[in-house]
Amino acid sequence: MTITLYDLAGAEADRRFSPFCWRARMALAHKGLAVETVPWGFTEKDRLPQPNAGRVPVIVDGDTVVHDSTAIADYLEGRYADKPTLFGGENGRALARFVQNWTETVLQAGIIPLVVLDIHRHSRMQDHEYFRRSREERFGRTLEEVVRDRESRLPALRASLDPLRRTIERQDFISGNAPAYADYIVFGAFQWARAISDFELLAADDPVRGWRGRMLDLYGGLARRAPAYGD
Amino acid sequence: MTITLYDLAGAEADRRFSPFCWRARMALAHKGLAVETVPWGFTEKDRLPQPNAGRVPVIVDGDTVVHDSTAIADYLEGRYADKPTLFGGENGRALARFVQNWTETVLQAGIIPLVVLDIHRHSRMQDHEYFRRSREERFGRTLEEVVRDRESRLPALRASLDPLRRTIERQDFISGNAPAYADYIVFGAFQWARAISDFELLAADDPVRGWRGRMLDLYGGLARRAPAYGD
Lengths: 231, 231
Known about the structure:
2 copies of one chain form a homodimer.
Chain A: E1 3-8, H1 19-30, E2 35-40, E3 58-61, E4 64-67, H2 69-79, H3 90-122, H4 128-139, H5 143-147, H6 150-160, H7 162-170, H8 181-196, H9 207-221
Parallel strand pairs in A: 1-2
Antiparallel strand pairs in A: 1-3, 3-4
Helix pairs in contact in A: 1-2, 1-8, 3-6, 3-8
């Protein structure tokens, strides 16, 4: 049975740019599950299964509705325990939480002030006002001010990748010899950035690019084939 | 058979303050193995099993000598596979590497400029010159200059703990419901600091203190009973 994934989309319905939705998309592919994605805009609360918090990803699997990327990963791991594991056990699941918390507090927090204006540009016309207002409130500045001089902030972002860089210098994936959910968490942040911005985050010789390339190749180039910038 | 652990010691032989040795010490306790520690000073290359790189931890288990905390954890996990696992499988082992790389590039790198003069004060008199010279070369400043105004750098250190803080706000240990090697890696950094410095890194209400307390309680208060400052 095909699983439905409500997936954040921009003005072009094929351009999918939620880091959290990419986690779910990659996790579904990891489990080898058929999926149909529904493009969804920031303000379409009414189009999601009810009740909802106005956020994606949401999946519908038969009679089961699951909200939130972490809950989705846990659901898939339990419901499809016979398929390749996302966590490799409870210790792996717990440590994936650490990777998630690093991704959200360091990586995504570092990326957003660099690309937030690009998100605005790619979002649907009817979402522009909502997006600008909510994000300018959060930052206390205009989006244009937030991204100003972003080149000068690249060295700090790149330095903040040290834990990731050292890890994938010594093993092909964050999760070891093969990718698993922790990789999808971190990859979601990079795929989000490249889906909506031509501002390259990584230096040409950064080993993190090699890992990102391996992630883009997975599942028949699932993420590489999606509308995005750069390699 | 008792395992021997060469363990970095200060002027007081009981004051053990290597973050890497604490990883090994906790891993040995996790496996329930009997250990005899040998206090070792920075410059006692000749007192370690030969050949050596002049660094601890080193363990001797019968005819086997293992250098380096990571190699020791891998050795213990393989040799004592029947004892409680340090990693919970290959995914957990791979993700523990990420936690290790975060600990070394963020946490330990953030702590050392705050406590390096305290390490000097606690090291053996005959190690003072070596320690000061090697560390001042690394920092390009005197140790006194490195720690100057350290209070002003506490907020940045505390903010850098966000990935850890969020994780242990939602689960008792980094590794989940029970501690495992990733916890020992991070704990080693805190135990190092508290062993040689009365400069408290954590705010009184920081949830990280709760986790640190749980770590101090493990194995009959192994780390709590060791000479150190604060709680």
